[in-house]
Amino acid sequence: MNPRNVPVHVRNPSNCCEFCVQLFALKGYFGHDIRIPLMSTKSSSTTRDIIRLLGHARIQPVYYLIPMALAALAALFEGVGVTLLIPLLNGFLTMDYKFLLEIPGFENVLAFWPAGIQLRDRNLFLFLIGFFVLLIVLRNVLKYVSSVMFSYLTLRALHHLRKTLFGRYLSFGKLFFDRTSVGHHGTVLADFAQQAFFPLIKLGSIMNAFFSLCAYAAVMFFISWQLTLMAVPLFLILHFSMHFIVKRVRTESRTLTERSKDLGKKVIEILAAMPLVQMNNAERAEREHYSRISDEQAALQHRIFALQQFVVPLQEVIILLGALSLLIGMSYLLIARGESTPSSFLVYFYVVMNAGTKLGVFTEFWSQIARAAGPVEAINAVLEDEGKERVADGREPFTGLNTGIEFRSLTFAYTEAKEVLKGFSLTIPKGKMTALVGATGSGKSTVVQLLTRFYDVPPASLFVDGRDIREFSTATLRDHMALVSQDTQLFHESLRYNITYGMENIDEATLQRVIKQSRLAEFIAQLPNGLDTLIGDRGVQLSGGERQRVAIARALLKDAEILILDEATSALDSRTETLIQEAIDEAVRGRTTIVIAHRLSTIRNADNIAVLEEGRLMEQGTFDKLIRNKGSFARFWEAQQFA
User: Fold this and answer.
1) How is residue 493 annotated by DSSP?
2) Closest by alpha carbon to 485, among 548, 437, 427?
3) Architecture (CATH level 2) of domain 39-106+116-383
4) Helix, strand, coil proportions of the chain in percent (round to 5)?
5) Torsion over CA of 184, 190, 191 and 195, rounded to 10 degrees?
6) Tens digits of residue pLDDT in 434-467
7) If we measure between CA atoms, which residue out of 609, 87, 69, 20 comes closest to residue 347?
8) Exposed, middle or buried: residue 282 (CB in 10 Å: 0-12, 13-18, 19+)?
9) Which CATH number fits domain 404-641: 3.20.20.70, 3.40.50.300, 1.20.1290.10, 3.10.20.30?
10) Global confidence as pTM
């Protein structure tokens, strides 16, 4: 009794995926419970997961039925061709092919026999050879077309799966990326997607092998059912001897997935922090750390490769021992009992050896399934909705700000351990400038990131025009907002691409006006390719002030009615800050502006200044009023005057 056997109902499969799972698992279609111990539960689970991935990749498993049908037809031709070997050998040994005329139905073939060609042995032999060659050619053509179709479908599935995964990543909340590694996500997209579908690339071989085995089984029973019963234990021994190897490969695959994740994460971290590494003379330590992870990955890959390569020699030894047993059985049936003919046994022996090779294809396939277990689990983790920290999207389009923005007793925490905002309340009127001031960690940037919907807020805690912000579509809200952050985000593209990012149909006159407003015109004029100059990874070829001016130009070009400046002048020298401040003063006119400022001198003209301490609003008012109150803001101001 095998505890791994699971009853499978296939009379009315609920969907194509489930049907194909059962079909690919080599389970039957008999309308009742069947139990075939071909795969372990874990392998079957991985197979089902891979088939489900096809749905995410927009490839219905039913599409594979066409190449499967071609593979079945190729196997039929192969079976007929192998069967023809018996009369070919018999005629060759006896030098007489007249027995073909006694085969029932052959007279129908003679109707197409060319007139004038006599039915001699040589002509019959040539006919038989020609028919045999035709069958083999047709078999190979069909196998080739089937394999190409399997490969095409799988590569298309891989292409769509990568797009699906990338789209999923784009839909996740910022908190998800705060808690995970970018290096791991890059590995999932670049490597794990391909590794997960690698077994499907081999699906053409496995289906050709499956249908060939069916044809071989029919030929074997046709030649000698006694020998076939003797051959069954050989195949069972071959299967179960491979089970241990497949199990080991699956275990090593999960460990290899973790090491690949660590390696990808390390590469991204070090390359992104190269100045820090070099400044602290940590090249040697990082090289050793990387080498250690890479060595572990290489060792795991070697172990998996060694296990997979062990399959073929072990398989050949088992087949050889089984073949010797079959030779003894053939000799007994031929000599002692006088059953069948030598040519029949030669063909039978040939079929058994080929069947053993086909079983090896199955073993390799299960090994690939086992190796894909780790990548499939990593991909499924991305496809699951749990833990993705999505920001709930509203249904109402936001058409523009009418009255203002209001925070009402908002309490927010990134983790349960610490609240960042505690009962925060603030009103931001339309068309006014509101400044947020406070020490590092007081919650200023969190206020901005909640307003821009990078993180979700509790219900009834943040209102726009008197309505809960959660009711509005996130995309339409952001259409009316422009953000200049202290952490400038730039791409390894041209200046033009970075300034116009996310915007279409920008005319040159508007672009040039914004460039002058952001004080970039003189800088761009000095570049060899002007606006088409590449600025390097994350804008590394620009200075800090130049990067922020590009970000300001982007915000000005968007011409949004809500302008958010998060430390927009923090990386500028005094001269550049003065120039940018003039551009900002011009840009904020008539707009609802929220400014997070470290230099308090830049917010003298703010309509309202809100002072935060440890997530609470401590005081608010105009610049002069807060100075007269001699509270927290006055202390910040005095500290900067003497700094």
Assistant:
1) S
2) 548
3) Up-down Bundle (1.20)
4) 65, 10, 25
5) 130
6) 999 988 889 999 999 999 999 999 999 999 999 9
7) 87
8) middle
9) 3.40.50.300
10) 0.67
